[in-house]
Amino acid sequence: MFGLKKWRRNRWMKRPFPDDWESILYQNVPYVQHLPAKMQTKLKGLITVFLKEKTYEGCAGLELTDEIRVTIAAQACILMLGVDDLSYFYDELRSILVYPESYVVKIKNRHDSFFVQEGFQKRHGEAWSHGNVVLAWDEVKKGASDIHDGQNLVFHEFAHQLDYEYGATNQVEDQYEDSQFLSWARVVGNEYKKLLTALHKNQQTLIDSYGATNLAEFFAVITECFFEKPRQLKNEHPALYEQLKEFYKQDPASYIKS
């Protein structure tokens, strides 16, 4: 089964990239223009695979278009540019739900065993552990437009998806004995604690303060920083940069200028 999936994906990778998709790609995702030529070619192949396999759903009356599909797929696939073995490619992702703009959800906050407070929360996006990613289209475009601000909704939510599938933050929490994960757990765990300490002291941080919410959000936030502020991250947090470089099999500091 896995051999067939890999074969099929490799076949799709070689298909010509439609001209209208290419126009959307370079207009809506300026990050792509900074990638080396070989990576741009690979990205187009990954986008083709993504659009062949993944399902999109328009929400709140949003009519899906190629612009929406390609723009989202491109950013999701940037995270996967370091992958050479296509036997795996967001395999647990079932669908991408897209709202025209930020949406409101009903939430429950449990304060103790007896008291539950209900309310509403405005969201730009979210990733669910059972294979759905939810995005607000206006925020998708906003995040893609500035490649240096460290704020990219698709990078953030698809980092959560990878976390669910790889267990990246579980490795930090569990402190696995396996030496393959020990360095990752130690470095990411220590950097998370440093962020909490810096914010407690009201210090400015390169890593967005939202990363202090929990380890899962920390991983999503440092992913945004890794891809959009790679040189600053490498200078200020070299050990963390090296761990993310190994995780994503990419070195954006070598081609993304500040």
UniProtKB/TrEMBL annotation:
Gene source species: Fodinibius salsisoli
Entry protein name: Zinc-dependent peptidase
InterPro entries reported in the protein's UniProt record: MetalloPept_cat_dom_sf, MtfA_fam, MtfA_N
Top-level taxon of the source organism: Bacteria
Pfam entry (one): Peptidase_M90
Coiled coil spans: none
